[in-house]
Amino acid sequence: MPYRFILPAIAVAFGAAVAFNVQDSSAAPEHAGPGSVTFAAHDHGYTGPDRIPAGMTTVEIVNRGQDLHHAQIVKLAPGKTTADFHAAMKAHPMRFPGWVSALGGPNAVAPGGQAASMMRLDAGRYLMLCLIPDKHGVPHVALGMEKELTVTPVRTVALAEPSPDVTITQHDFRFDLPNPITAGSRTIRVVNEGGQTHEVVLVKLNPGVSVGEFLVAIAPGAAGPPPGRPVGGIVGLDRGTHGFFKADFEPGEYGLICFFEDDGKVPHFAKGMAMQFTVR
What we know:
8-stranded mixed sheet; 5-stranded mixed sheet; disordered N terminus
């Protein structure tokens, strides 16, 4: 499974604690309107609807836990079940089975934060997963942080894709960002033109810190608080697919990072898939 090396230092810095499939049923999800749905992320579970209509959908998570959380959305092939997924991951814990489609989802945000991602969801069975590990290196999904979703067919006119401000293209192993991102609320299109599943972890860097220094500071065994914070992005996208995310960009330095691993268990950022850019 990806994220074997990801962010234990950040989890400690934000006061992460181990919990076991705890959900706050009193925290009601909010709905922003047609084609939009919000889920609350807890330590370690999600609350929100079990069924959503097919089509172009904005999925938002609000982090009401004490750990970092995201929401990787995967589609199960027809005839496959959650139990089949668990069995496949137990047999090969470092990768998704071939009958799963990784479609993105809002990426990591700190406690109290929120992130949104947009993607087209066809009718079928889905899972929402948090692949981020706790401070002991245990992925949250192994602590019960998953949610089954059923996407139902609709007869209404499909919503159009959002109009992006900027496009980020993913390759093996780099990001292309040909146009600048300016300050404000922005919609970013992400296209995976690589041969593997990739993500975008968006990090707001502390002043004077490079993305390389940030990665060194969050490596296993590093001490002290991380010199930056995750502020969203989009989780894993399969090759040949695309999705969108929204973020509020303040002026300053940012990083794009892919923590997914190749078949040799090397994180993609270690092969060059990390990029720094300036927002003005």
